[in-house]
Amino acid sequence: MMALVIAGREFRSLFLSPLAWTILGVIQIILAYMFLAQLDYYLMVQARIAGMEEAPGITDLIVAPLFGNAGVILLLVTPLLTMRLISEERRNRTLSLLFTAPVSMAEIVLGKYLGVIAFLLVMVGMILLMPLSLLLGGGLDGGKLAACVMALTLLLAGFAAVGLYMSALAAQPTVAAVSTFGALLLLWIIDWSSQASGKGGGVLEYLSLLRHYEGLLKGLITTTDLLYFVLFITTFLVLSIHRLDNDRLQK
């Protein structure tokens, strides 16, 4: 399948870039600091919560906040990884070569998307090593840990889908990065006004990435949240395919 060939090429090209290695290193350092800070906080309050009924455990006080912080930081970082997916092809005038190749627009979009998703999964795996280290000195709630991993994976898949679409729209990678960050930030905070007024957000609350992400981090896996991410990712991938189809027709 040509999509997998394109995905492999994108994945390798990311690791050939010093930007990708820098991002991996910086993310690990920042999150490791936050992880150790949460661990120190847990050790400080452990004696106070020991006698409480249904007291929060290690997973609630250390792991969930770690993945929550990871979501915010990766909202800033993901646009840097997705900005060059299509826009760099357009800037280098190599997009026409893709159009003339015996592959469909869907395969091109899916291939580039899977390539960046594979890189993001490496990042998720590196983040996962931190909570897994806690098994050396205690226990973890496996179900909540799995929910946190799934939540971050779905969130990053959504980030990547938006980034790919913005890269398909923009002629310059920098413009794609800024546009992606703006779109993701808007989708992250879209229901803040309704929360501040104390009223239900309705549609705005459903559109908010943060609301669905927080629900999954709590271990509350609902069909609504899962369906939201599936529709979110599919929508932006389809929009990217249509954008490239329009570009090819204009050639």
* Helix fraction by DSSP (H/I, runs of at least 4): over 70%
- Please give the radius of gyration in angstroms: 20 Å
What's the helix-strand series? HHHHHHHHHHHH
**Cα end-to-end separation:** 25 Å
Structure summary, number of beta strands: 0
Number of helices: 12
Summarize the biggest pleated sheet.
none
Summary, kept brief:
The chain is mainly alpha-helical and 251 residues long. The chain has helices at 2-15, 18-49, 58-82, 87-91, 95-100, 105-132, 142-169, 173-189, 192-197, 203-207, 209-217, 223-250.
Attribute tags:
251 residues, 12 helices, 81% helix, 0% strand, mainly alpha
Can you offer a commentary on this structure?
This protein has 251 residues and is an all-alpha fold. It has twelve helices and no strands. The longest helix has 32 residues. The mean pLDDT is 87.
Helix and strand topology:
Layout: H1 2-15, H2 18-49, H3 58-82, H4 87-91, H5 95-100, H6 105-132, H7 142-169, H8 173-189, H9 192-197, H10 203-207, H11 209-217, H12 223-250
